[in-house]
Amino acid sequence: MHRTLLWLLATAALAGSAGPPARTAMPAPPPAVGEAARTGGRPWPVPGTPVVVRTWNPPATPYGPGHRGVDLAAPPGTEIRAVAAGRVTFAGPVAGTGVLTITLDGSGSPPLRTTYEPVRALVRVGERVAAGQLVATVETEEAAPAHCKEEGCLHWGLKRGEVYLNPLALVRGGHARLLPVWGV
Predict the structure, then answer these.
(1) Looking at residue 125, what is its pLDDT?
(2) CATH placement of domain 2-172
(3) Mean pLDDT computed over every residue of the chain
(4) What integer is the mean pLDDT of 1-9?
């Protein structure tokens, strides 16, 4: 319970303001999967220094407008790696677009789920994957979201139950610590 609360607080702190869609380089990402494992961080789903094509903008209501993930610049054929260890719980088309969902190990109840699209999955439902493992490749431009058609991108999402979260919290985060407040 306490770990889940701390994680939610860290996610909320990292979410910041949604603001308009932006194209910005992420600060100091791990340069390689091996380096991420060595430093205790999580690998990014795309290689190199990811560029955010569109930011996370959570909807105000369940069916309201917004952007329920982030888009990372990734041309067709880009290798996609699992951000954390887990089990593949979906791999297939949704409305003609290839989608991969991985339910993350040890992430509480309900567990966290990451989604990647548009992709061609290289893993199957039920398969266990390790952090940094190659799991998919970005599909052709025809399957890309409209705002990514020219350059290509990976839409990367994160959910706990029915609640959308900012997936950048998985790679940008540190550990949130609550300090005692004396005299309260």
Answers:
(1) 98
(2) 2.70.70.10
(3) 75
(4) 38
Surface-to-core class of residue 81, CB atoms within 10 Å of its CB (0-12 exposed, 13-18 middle, 19+ buried): buried
Task: Supply the pTM of this predicted model.
Answer: 0.71
Tens of pLDDT, residue by residue over 20-56, are 344 433 333 333 444 344 334 688 999 977 888 888 7
Domain ranges of the chain: 2-172
79/123 Cα distance (integer angstroms): 13
Whose structure tokens read 């992709």? 119
